[in-house]
Amino acid sequence: MRRYLTYRGPLSLLAAVLAPLALSAVLLPFRDSMANTNVALLLVVVVVAVASLGQRWAGAVAAGPRAR
């Protein structure tokens, strides 16, 4: 079976690294006004989106450092 969208691998790994960092930077000014649970939920949504659009490695890379 032919593989379609072969560019998804490198792009999904790049998105796995940059998307949670970008969201964290955007949410930084709202740190005092937003609850931690809302911020965690938004980060989970980003990780799930990267994992579903990319490959398994992208999901693991996106979730790895954020699992504290």
If you had to describe this structure to a student in words, what would you say it looks like?
- The protein is an all-alpha fold.
- The longest helix is centred in the N-terminal third of the chain and has 20 residues, at 8-27.
- The protein contains three helices and no strands.
- The protein has helices at 8-27, 36-53, 56-63.
- The model has no long low-confidence stretch (mean pLDDT 80).
- The protein has one domain (8-63).
What does the secondary structure layout of this molecule look like, with pairings?
Layout (H helix, E strand, L loop, with lengths): L7 H20 L8 H18 L2 H8 L5
Task: Give me some keywords for this one.
3 helices, mainly alpha, 68 residues, membrane, transmembrane, KdpD_sf
Which regions contain 5 or more consecutive residues with pLDDT less than 50?
Answer: none
Overall strand count: 0
Q: What does the radius of gyration come to?
A: 14 Å
* Global outline: elongated
How many structural domains?
1
Oligomer class: single chain
In terms of DSSP E residues, the strand content is under 5%
Mean pLDDT across all amino acids: 80
Structural class, by secondary structure, is mainly alpha
Could you describe the largest sheet, including whether it forms a barrel? none
Helix fraction bin: 55-70%
Helix-strand string: HHH
Helical element count?
A: 3
